[in-house]
Design goal:
23 strands
């Protein structure tokens, strides 16, 4: 009888208090299952003009420092039930350093028969001068730069790209990002092609942007060259903008000098124009236009609409001519009659309406 009671008590305790012990066992097993190989290489910074890395199934991290040295650390890891199975996978992955003079070139190579049933990855951690030239190619992983001020070319597919620290100010960035998100604090000059994802850029001096199936948020840009398809774009402040959009929505909170935009099948809204505006031309087809002007702003307005309507705040200030489905209009807003340099607003649209609103 005592034996039966003891067994019953043991079973009861196991049912009441199993979770913590099992969790601890799982953590130990997870740690034991992860196997890795590491490689550390060092180079004198004076001997390296540029660094090239081609990787997949992993991440690339670059950190600028003030040491006269470039350090490349590679970690290949796999999570397998035992060391033997892990080593089978690790044996099919290698990292090659290709000789190239003052260009350091690393490439991740998989054996032809490579296959893994277990999670694995190849991660690069690089430390070097903050102005070192970079060419980074990655697939199925992220790329992150920190404390970087140089010139970089980046190709990334199925991963996120990030330069989010305030110390970084890349002199030049060429980025092709597909199926991933972009987070960029600031850049001097950039040529970005972003496809399928979200992108946030806080500040850019000169930006060429191609957006396909993207959601874009730009806080401040001086000179923007834009090509957008099936995208949503929000710009807080732009000094000058030029480009083309199709099947896209564009919102500009504040436009300083003006520009030229062609748009097809979408919508544009410009919420505020600067008194320093030079000229603005909007040419649309099947694109609804919303243009907010300041009541204290001088401007000369000209335009035409085919198969659409014009919404203007004061019909007494505008001249309209109609001929069949063509509407031609002009207006002159003169708060300061002596101002001979009033900016020109040219609005052209087809099969959609134009809304000019006064604040």
């Amino acid at each position: 009888m005592n034996t039966i009671k003891a067994l019953f008590l043991s079973l009861l305790l196991a049912l009441v208090f199993p979770a913590k012990d099992l969790q601890a066992q799982d953590q130990v097993q997870d740690q034991a299952r992860r196997q890795h190989q590491t490689r550390d290489d060092q180079f004198a910074a004076a001997d390296v003009q540029s660094l090239s890395i081609t990787n997949r199934h992993g991440s690339i991290f670059y950190t600028g420092w003030d040491k006269e040295e470039v350090t490349v650390r590679v970690r290949i890891w796999v999570e397998a039930p035992n060391q033997t199975l892990a080593e089978e996978v690790l044996g099919l992955i290698s990292v090659l350093q290709v000789p190239g003079g003052k260009q350091v070139d690393y490439r991740t190579v998989f054996a032809d028969e490579f296959f893994s049933n277990y999670p694995f990855g190849i991660d690069y951690h690089i430390y070097g001068p903050d102005t070192l030239g970079l060419k980074l190619v990655n697939r199925l992983g992220k790329i992150q730069l920190e404390n970087y001020k140089g010139r970089a070319r980046v190709e990334l597919n199925f991963g996120n790209f990030e330069i989010s620290d305030e110390k970084s100010l890349p002199d030049s960035l060429q980025l092709q990002l597909t199926n991933g998100n972009l987070n960029l604090q600031q850049v001097r000059t950039a040529n970005i092609h972003h496809r399928n994802g979200k992108a946030t850029l806080a500040k850019a001096e000169q930006l060429q942007l191609q957006a396909d199936f993207s959601t874009i948020h730009l806080k401040q840009v001086q000179d923007l060259q834009l090509e957008a398809t099936t995208s949503h774009l929000q710009i807080e402040e732009a000094a000058h903008i030029q480009g083309h959009t199709s099947n896209s929505d564009l919102e500009i909170a504040y436009l300083v000098r003006g520009g030229f935009l062609e748009m097809e099948r979408g919508e544009i809204q410009i919420k505020r124009l600067s008194n320093a505006l030079h000229e603005l031309t909007l040419a649309g087809s099947h694109t609804t236009m919303h243009l907010h002007t300041d009541k204290n702003m001088d401007y000369n307005l000209h335009g035409q609409i085919i198969d659409g309507k014009l919404h203007f705040p004061d019909n007494k200030q505008i001249t309209i001519l109609r001929e069949n489905n063509l509407l031609t209009f002009s207006a002159e807003a003169k708060v300061r009659p002596a101002n001979g340099n009033a900016p020109a607003l040219i609005l052209l649209n087809n099969n959609s309406d134009i809304h000019v609103l006064n604040k």
